[in-house]
């Protein structure tokens, strides 16, 4: 990394004053990193000294610039959440945050022993499952916390169609807007011949608009007032859009479409969501869904604790494994008939969103968002990209058939 790049990621000069326990924090953090075996991490401390970790096994290469050794205490106490809080508070940076998290994921097995206290993981799990559980009352509050940041905010970095889910590039050199349209078309292709559709989680109306263009009659439901207002203006009466919890949906349809909404349901309510899909379908009807999953071998640890995204970005969220989703669907009388996985396309989508977000940083500030908020969202987009690029998370399109 050249000197200009280092200066761009350097913290204010006041960070250079080391705390009384800086030496102890430094030893704690470097000892934690010394467990790593995969790839190579170049670390530069507040005093300019450099260290390298990993190297014995293949893996990602990354750089980590530490401005304040006290980040070690945050990691020791709060694990992934503490590391993120350190970034949000300018305690560290990297010229490639996604690369840094890919390196961490590659070395997760070795590093996990020092990644937060058991008490922190227990408290995080209890907070997610009790205080933020997606009951009918709390669910709308959780959705509003994320999606009602303002339509103007999301318009700054999403494609012109206002789609906030993975695009489908399928190896083609196409724009983000074209890839989002390809995603909708593939989902709706699964529902050819299904005239009447219910969309669970209709967002800003992009899928509803495409469905109407293709000749479907569509009803859509959402829990976000801001999204509903936008979608109603967009569709201008061409679809029946309502502010409604999926558990209260009435009537039956030829097909159901739902895109990356299952992640917001919460594990306790997965069966209720499946029952809602089953109940919304006429016998023989089909649902086309797009879901984000977590790797089977990562789920147990993920389920036991919390993480930065659930703590600061998506309260109440919970990823399923593909096998858990399939088992839950089958238990509700829904058979999986089609499958497409495209994690690399989600990593590409997130990088484009991050590029747009960075390009519009001044506009984000003009909307009243703080530096801490901007760093939180920059981190969120980069961490998600790392998850998909590394295979820890995946995105799937699935067709579910209700038995006659």
Automatic annotation (TrEMBL):
Keyword Lipid metabolism attached: yes
One Pfam family in the UniProt entry: CMAS
Gene Ontology biological-process annotations: lipid biosynthetic process; methylation
Keyword Transferase among UniProt keywords: yes
Keywords: Lipid metabolism, Methyltransferase, S-adenosyl-L-methionine, Transferase
SUPFAM superfamilies the UniProt entry points to: S-adenosyl-L-methionine-dependent methyltransferases
Domain of life: Bacteria
Entry protein name: Class I SAM-dependent methyltransferase
Native organism: Candidatus Amphirhobacter heronislandensis
């Amino acid at each position: 990394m050249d000197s200009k790049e280092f200066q761009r990621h350097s913290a204010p000069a006041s960070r250079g004053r080391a705390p009384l326990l800086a030496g102890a924090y430094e030893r704690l953090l470097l000892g934690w990193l010394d467990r790593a075996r995969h790839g190579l991490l170049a670390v530069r401390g507040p005093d300019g000294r450099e260290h390298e970790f990993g190297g014995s096994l293949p893996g990602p290469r990354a750089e980590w610039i530490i401005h304040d050794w006290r980040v070690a205490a945050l990691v020791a106490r709060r694990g992934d959440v503490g590391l993120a809080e350190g970034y949000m508070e300018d305690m560290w940076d990297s010229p490639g945050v996604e690369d840094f998290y890919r390196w961490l994921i590659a070395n997760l097995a070795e590093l996990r022993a020092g990644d937060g206290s058991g008490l922190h993981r227990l408290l995080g799990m209890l907070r997610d499952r009790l205080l933020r559980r997606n009951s009918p009352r709390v669910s709308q509050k959780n959705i509003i916390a994320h999606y009602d940041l303002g339509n103007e905010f999301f318009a700054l970095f999403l494609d012109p169609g206002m789609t906030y889910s993975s695009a489908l590039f399928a190896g083609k050199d196409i724009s983000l807007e074209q890839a989002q349209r390809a995603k909708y078309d593939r989902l709706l292709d699964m529902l050819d011949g299904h005239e009447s559709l219910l969309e669970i989680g209709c967002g800003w109306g992009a899928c509803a608009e495409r469905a109407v263009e293709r000749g479907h009659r569509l009803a859509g439901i959402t829990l976000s007032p801001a999204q509903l207002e936008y979608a109603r203006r967009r569709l201008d009466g061409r679809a029946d859009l309502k502010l409604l919890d999926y558990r209260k949906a009435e009537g039956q349809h030829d097909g159901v479409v739902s895109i990356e909404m299952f992640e917001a349901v919460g594990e306790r309510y997965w069966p209720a969501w499946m029952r809602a899909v089953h109940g919304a379908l006429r016998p023989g009807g089909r649902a086309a869904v797009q879901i984000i999953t977590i790797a089977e071998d990562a789920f147990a640890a993920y389920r036991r604790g919390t993480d930065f995204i659930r703590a600061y970005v998506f309260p109440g969220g919970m990823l399923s494994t593909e096998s858990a989703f399939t088992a839950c669907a089958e238990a509700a009388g829904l058979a999986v008939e089609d499958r497409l996985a495209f994690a690399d396309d989600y990593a590409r989508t997130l990088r484009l969103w991050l590029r747009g977000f960075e390009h519009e940083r001044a506009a984000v500030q003009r909307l009243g968002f703080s530096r801490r908020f901007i760093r939180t969202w920059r981190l969120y987009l980069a961490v998600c990209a790392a998850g998909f690029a590394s295979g820890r998370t995946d995105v799937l399109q699935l067709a579910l058939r209700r038995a006659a």
